[in-house]
Prior knowledge:
elongated
Amino acid sequence: MIRDRILFLWQFHRPLLLVFCLILGALGFFGVRTVSAAIYWADPAHQEQPLAAWMTPRYVSRSYQIPPEVLEEALFLDPDAPIRRVSLGQIAKENEVTLDVLQSRVDAAAEAQKILRDARR
């Protein structure tokens, strides 16, 4: 029965069936990505991890729940500069600081964000 319907659609509505399958595939792809990201960031082991040289500002922003514009200041990033993928190790080297200095700046920014969030409640 289902096979007959699919064959009918394939014979008489092929473009529509292909578009439907493409949309269904995209929905599945993005659905799986969304669920896997939600599970990953809900794990307490991924929240407020100590900084490591391999981490990117985006990772730190999500881990510490700090908006990117606040984190840019803490990591010596120029907000007007073009977006580029850079690790914390590269940021520390370019600014001649250690990861411990970056960690203290990120901790201070995270604490300020927590205070700001609590004040809004």
